[in-house]
Amino acid sequence: MQFILVTGLSGAGKSEAIHAFEDLGFFCVDNLPPALIPKFAELCLQSQGRITRVALVCDIRGGLFFQNLFEALKELEQLSIHYQILFLEASDDVLVRRFKETRRRHPLVGEEGTVLEGIRKERKVLDELRGRATVILDTSHLTGRELRSEIAERYGGEPNRRMVTTLVSFGYKHGIPLDSDLVLDVRFLPNPHYVESLKQLTGNDARVEEYVLRWPAAQRFLQEAERFLSFLVPHYVQEGKSHLVVGVGCTGGQHRSVVIANRLADFLRSQGYPVVVEHRELSETQGKE
């Protein structure tokens, strides 16, 4: 069983990392108390092969429970589970900035303490665990997408799982995503915006999806787009590309592009590729997306 313990400094990207593991097909649990890790591992061993890839986040949020982590790791060794520890960190200034951007309080400081004090205290607490890490990953200069790609490269396993494809739905009136490798324009499809009962909904609503996909042009477009991606993606993987960004655009980015991006994501997943979907104009990111 592939057993990954994700830990590290608060604000270093553990939540993003666990989403990346989900995209790779891992069974994931966030903030599991250390005392429960061996019990959880036993359940996985009893799954008759249904659970073979596991990623757990265990960090300072566990409070007093976190002190039991090393005992839990010893129990894993007694169960003959060969675990790996992925330790995420970042520079102090980057972590401070991230906490300010999210307006979150550091878990190790009260109302009077500063974020920097919490970071430095956490570094000391985690120093021994960092020394036992299998992989130490500095996320100071990594975007969320780059972190997901890094994890896919290290833990993806089969070659076709080492490249993450991100499908970004967007509205042309807000501009094309600058980091797109490919752009698909679906403005030719009938627009739900002009249907009064659908206007205020999004492409994530089943009623909008049914409307967009009812038209023969939409069905044909999906067939051709799937055929195109079936040809193209394996060549990108073979070339060694770690991240592919495909933009799907309609006028406002609310209806048609969302539906098509979701459907293409489902198709790529069915082919065994890790996929992330970002609905830019909805301010929504799906992990299994």
How do you describe this structure in short?
Residues 1-158 form the RapZ-like N-terminal domain. This protein has 289 residues and is an alpha/beta fold. The protein has nine helices and ten strands.
Any overview of this molecule?
The protein has 289 residues and is α/β, with parallel strands linked by helices. The protein has two domains: 156 residues, P-loop containing nucleotide triphosphate hydrolases (Rossmann fold, 3-Layer(aba) Sandwich); 125 residues, no CATH class. 40% of the residues lie in helices and 19% in strands. The protein is built from nine helices and ten strands. Strands 2-3-1-4-5 form a five-stranded parallel sheet, with helices on both faces. The chain has a five-stranded mixed sheet with strand order 7-8-6-9-10, with helices on both faces. Helix 4 crosses helix 5 and helix 8 crosses helix 9. The radius of gyration is 21 Å and the shape is globular. The C terminus is likely disordered.
